[in-house]
Amino acid sequence: MTVQRRLRFAVFMLCFTGLFVGVLYYVHSAFIASWNEKQLRQLAIDTLTRTELAIDSATMKMSDVIVNRSTSCATVDPMVMTKALYGSSIMKNMRLETKDGVCWSYDEKNEALEQSIANAKHNRTNSPGYSLFSLHFPGWKGLGVRWQYSEEGNIVEVLATSGLLFEILPADLRDSALIHLTLQDGTSFASYSPQKKWYTDGIELVNFDEQSERYPIKFGLKVDAAALARWNQEISLQSAAIASAVGLGFGILAARGMVRNASILDELDRALSRGQIQPYFQPIFDLEDRKLLGFEMLARWIKPDGTMIPPLAFIPLAESSGRIDRLTMELLRQTGDQLGGLLQAQAQLKLTFNVTPDQYLAENFVDTLISNTARFNLPHRALVVEVTERQAIADKTRAAIVTGKLNDAGMRVAIDDAGTGHNGLSAIHALGANYLKIDKFFIDGVTLDRKSSELVEMLAGLATKFRDDRRRRGDRDGRADNRAAAAGHQGGTGVCLFPPGTGIDDPRHGDERSNHSHTEKQEPCLFPHECLTRLRRGKSPG
Predict the structure, then answer these.
(1) What's the CA gap between 160 and 142, in Å, rounded?
(2) Considering Cα of 436, then 437, then 440, then 441, what sign does the dihedral take?
(3) Could you read off the pLDDT of 162-217 as tens digits, one per residue?
(4) Number of CB atoms found within 10 A of residue 2's CB
(5) How far apart are CA 403 and CA 412, in angstroms?
(6) Alpha carbons 435 and 371: distance in angstroms, whole number
(7) Which residues of 140-167 are buried (b: 16+ CB within 10 A; e: fewer)?
(8) Which of 209, 211, 363, 391 is 20 to 30 Å from the Cα of 437, by its Cα?
(9) Sheet of 177-183: strands edge to edge?
């Protein structure tokens, strides 16, 4: 791994580690905040439930005292009233009022309590005859539960409600919260406030309110938002260490994914950007007089160390990954730089290049090709577009339209490897091409196999009837050339048939080629640009 890649890896690792830890902290904080809110809402519900149970208990105790509608202070048993208060810390006293007078469970005189009951505002409940009211006198708050059991008689139970709020708040919130239990009329019968002075002016408060469905009572809690945000948010050193370790592991894995080893697609993109994929040119010659007719543009990937990668290793990849258009235009650009002047000067020369059926049928193929080749200094009259055989021509009607537009622009169209793959008779019929290019599979068997010879003659006959030129490729000796020429084929590509002294040497073998006759040479002739410059000065093959 280079220093640059190591640095990139470290940066990505730190970024993803920080991102993971940050997201984890955010999720943790959000979860705790949600959990805290749930706890406080449950606290409100629980407090209301305890208050309702206290009121229920008071009504049952009053029922124990009031035997019938005629019960009065004269007939009631004082011990029953006193016993009704036993066993409950919330029940403070019981007061019975009838036409005979007023009596208490305890005879203690409490004028403040009497006055509070006399001035009370009653809040009716769902049960007929029952009402609730708040009780106030200096230093004390309570709740009165009143039952009007007859026209002239009522009984009141006094509840000491301060115990309902005793230490119900978490310790971390006791200095930053206010609690009130209120009736429907807004009067409070129990409350909590911090022991130290707490000023709420300018402080953001979060409210938690709950309303009883059975009684006209309401629970209200106000909490300092800052204190609530800090509650339960402390993270232990052990948890922080575990989160950091997991985050580091995630950061390493993510960084490996970002700074991965270069894939073949990455290498292909770099090769296209750096001009490492270069055009090589295969000659097209007349089968009868060996005159040069033009060149077929082929692609070769030349790595910085001089290694040549064959097209089968990257052309299918470029097609499947959507890079074939970029590759084609890059090769045409380089070709324009290298051969544009030659093609402009020698009108008889043609330049053929391959496109896939998908490229051929693309919406802007013709316009893009026309504009780019003009910019690349490639004359349209010299260009021949070869449609390859690896894909089917999906829309034959459109294909014929594209062929017509290219012909109108001065270009010609060829069917590559006619008779093989998807370039069968239907493609020949639909495309309306100017040239048929017969594959070496048939040419190799011309002198050996009668069927191959007849197939070649058949394709030549078709081309003659369609008034197309014929091109063939792949000869291994001179005999197939003669047979192909006799069959009516006009041009051929693919092997070195130039005798010594033509001025063109195979770049892979240097000057060794001059020691071999053209019938001994069995490899395709591929000329880079530097070889073609010698062609301009030398004698034309033939």
Answers:
(1) 5
(2) negative
(3) 889 988 999 999 999 999 999 999 999 999 989 877 777 788 999 999 999 999 99
(4) 7
(5) 8
(6) 23
(7) ebbbbbbbebbeebbbbbbbbbbebbee
(8) 363
(9) 188-192, 177-183, 217-224, 205-211
